[in-house]
Amino acid sequence: MQQDLESSKSARFEARITEDQKAIFQKAAVLGGHRSLTEFIIQSAQEKADALIRDHEILNLTAKDKRIFIDALLKPPAPNKKLKSAAERFKHMKTQ
Questions:
Q1: Are 25 and 17 in contact (CB under 8 A)?
Q2: Which residue range forms the structural domain that includes residue 42?
Q3: Is 20 part of any domain?
Q4: Which of 18, 17, 15, 41 is nearest to 28 (CA)?
């Protein structure tokens, strides 16, 4: 429960940006319908962070999945009882 309370606390984040960057960000915030520059910056950073993490996880899973797939092709497991039963049902359906 304590962890839940801690995760809902706000934290401060400060950054120095140029006047040009601020002008661009503010224009984008207005065009995007954001209530404030802060809201725009936080939402944009969150979306970028989520995308980077998702892409990283997909790449890692993809490499792992490739290894599992290749291992299954090179060393296929023996058919189990359910697979043998399904194959028999399929053969029976084809002959009807």
A1: yes
A2: 15-94
A3: yes
A4: 41
User: Over the range 74-94, which residues count as b (16 or more CB within 10 Å of their CB) and which as e?
Assistant: eeeeeeeeeeeeeeeeeeeee
Which letter does DSSP use for residue 64 in this model?
H
Residue 54 lies in a domain: yes
- Cα–Cα distance for residue pair 56/17, rounded to 1 Å: 28
**Is residue 6 a part of any domain in this protein?**
no
Distance in angstroms (rounded) separating the CA atoms of residues 39 and 29: 8
Q: What is the pLDDT along the chain (96 residues), one digit of tens a residue?
A: 444 545 678 898 899 999 999 999 999 999 999 999 999 999 999 999 999 999 988 877 788 888 899 999 999 989 999 999 999 999 888 777
| Assigned domain for 61 exists | yes
In the chain, how many domains are there? 1
